[in-house]
Amino acid sequence: MTKIKKAQIILLSTSLIFMLWVVLMILPLLVSKSSDELLHHAPDDAVSIVTVNNREIIERFLFDALYGKGFSTNELEQLDYNKEDFEVPSSGIDLRENVVIFQTSYKKETITGFIFNLMDPQDFSNFNVRDHNEVKYFNEDIGCILMVPERSLKSDRLYFEAFAKKVVNERREQLPDHLTNVMNDEQLVNLFYRGHENTYIQNLELSAKINGSSIFFEGRGDKNPQIKYESGTYTQLKSPGQEPYLEVRAGQLPDSVYSYFDVITRNFHVELPEITSQQIFFYGIMIDNIDGSTAFLPKFDGIFRFKDSVDITVAVDSLIENEKKVHRQTSKTVKIGELDYHFKQLSPMEVAVGITPSLELDKIDKAPLPLIQGNPAATINIEGEGIIAQIAQMLPPVKYSKKLFNDLEYFELHTEEGGDGTLILRGEMRFPEKEKASLELFKYLMKF
Questions:
Q1: Which residues pair with 93 in a beta bridge?
Q2: Residue 164: left (phi > 0), alpha (psi -120 to 50), or beta?
Q3: CA distance 278 to 183
Q4: What end-to-end distance do the CA atoms of the chain give, in Å?
Q5: HSE (CB half, 13 Å, CA atoms) of 203?
C-alpha cells in the first residue's frame, strides 16, 4: 500500500470519527426542545423582550457548514488563533440553551438585562462583561446581568441589585398572552416590543428565520390609537442623491430622541414643532475639524413633516445667528465645515433638508408607513481626512460591519396595513445565492 493511500485512509477515518463525535455530541441537543423557563422570569414592565434561540442557531449553522459551501482555506486561516495568546474565558453560561434579553426603564434611563441558564455558577460569578456598568445576581440554575448607566449613585446600584435578585428568584406561573409567541422553536430570534406613547406600532411581535442565503423577518403589531396616520397628500423623495444609502421612513420619534432635539433647539434658540413623520436617505458621516474641534456631520437628504406649521427660513436664520460654525451660502443653503446643507419649504408643515442641491420629488396620497431599505453599511460610512476619521474607519466593528453589509444583495423591512387596527411587518436580508446566511454571520462574529 502506497504512502498516499495510507494517508487517504487515515484522513478518511479521522474525518468519520470526527463526524460521529459531532453527531453524538449534538444530537441530544437537537432532538430536545428548548424550555421557555427563562421567559417566566422576565419583568412584567419590560418594554421589550428578545429570546435568542441558541438551539436553532446551532442546528442551522451545523447543517449549512456540513452540507453547504463551508469555509475556504483563507477564511479558516482568518478564524484561526494562537491558543497561547488568546484564551476564551469560561462564562459559566449554558450557551446550548436560550437567552432572554429585556429592556426596562429607571429614572428615564434604559436598563438592558440578560437572563441565562447556567452550567457553572462559580464561573459565572467570575465572569464580567463591563466591570463598573453591570450588576449581577444568580442562583444554581439561573443568572441575570443588568447593564446600568455609568456613574450610577449608590442608591441606584442598591435598587439594581434588588431588581436583579427579583428577576432570578421570582417566577410567574403563567406567561401573559403577549409572550406566548415570543418562544418559538423554529425562529432564531423572537422579539416583543410594548412601545410607548410616541411609537406608531405597539405590542409588536417580530421574528427572524434563516433560509438558505436569506434572513426573513415577519411580525405583527397594533396601531397606536393616540397617533393619527390618516391618508393625505405628502411629499416624498423619489430616489437617493448618491450610493450607498439607507432609506428610513418613520413616524413620531421616541421621547429619548425628542429630548436630544430639545437640547439642540434650546441652545440655538430654534423653535420647531414636533415631527410627525420623516423620510431620510442616509449616506454616512463626515468627521470634520471646525475651529479646532471635532464635528460629526451627517450626510443625508430628508423630508420632515411637523405637527404644526413651521417656517424653515426663520429657523435657519436663528441657527446662523446663534451658531458661529454655521455660515450662509445662499438664501437656501448653509455651510457647516466641508458640507453644504440645502433647505426648502415644501408646504406649511413639510420641509426638505439635505446635502443634494436638487432632488426629484413626488406626491403620495396614503399614510407614510414605516420602512427601512437599502444598504445598512451607509450608517457606518465614515469620511474625513483627519486622524480621528482615519482611526474610526479602521476600527474592527466599523470595518467588519461594512464588509458584511456590502456583501448583501438586498435588505428591506416594510410595514403593511393588516386591518382592524393592526400592522404587518415583513422583511428580508439577502446574501448572494451561493452564500449561506448562517455562515456569513458566523464568520462576521468570529472576527471580533
A1: 118
A2: alpha
A3: 33
A4: 46
A5: 14
CA distance 54 to 34: 9
- Comparing CA positions, the residue from 174, 171, 110 lying closest to residue 139 is 171
Size of the chain, expressed as the number of residues it contains? 448
Can you tell me which residue has the cell 441537543?
Answer: 29
Tens of pLDDT, residues 247-303:
998 876 555 455 545 555 665 667 788 888 889 999 999 998 888 888 889 999 999
Cα torsion through 228, 234, 238, 242, rounded to 10: -70
DSSP, res 93: B
Identify each DSSP E strand in 360-401 by its residue range.
Answer: 361-364, 371-374, 382-383
Q: Are strands 275-290 and 382-383 parallel, antiparallel or unpaired?
A: parallel
Helix (H, G, I), strand (E, B) or coil at 134: strand
The amino acid occupying position 7 is: A
What 3-state DSSP class applies to 214? strand
Backbone torsions φ then ψ of 247, nearest 5 degrees: -90, 130
| Cell numbers describing residue 362 | 413626488
pTM of structure: 0.74
Helices 396-406, 437-445: inter-axial angle, 10-degree rounding = 170
Q: How many CB atoms lie within 10 A of CB 224?
A: 21
What is the CB neighbour count within 10 angstroms for residue 212? 15
Alpha-carbon distances of 189 from 140, 224, 351, rounded to whole Å = 26, 24, 38
pLDDT in tens, 368-424: 788 899 999 998 899 988 888 888 888 887 888 888 899 999 999 998 888 888 889
* DSSP-derived 3-state class of residue 265: helix
Task: For residue 34, give the DSSP letter.
Answer: P
Alpha-carbon distance of 304 to 308, in angstroms, equals: 12
Q: Which amino acid is at 165?
A: K
Cα–Cα distance measured from residue 282 to residue 353, given in angstroms and rounded to the nearest whole number: 12
In which residue are the cell numbers 397606536 written? 224
DSSP character at residue 87: -
DSSP sequence for 392-416: HHHSHHHHHHHHHHHT-SEEEEEEE
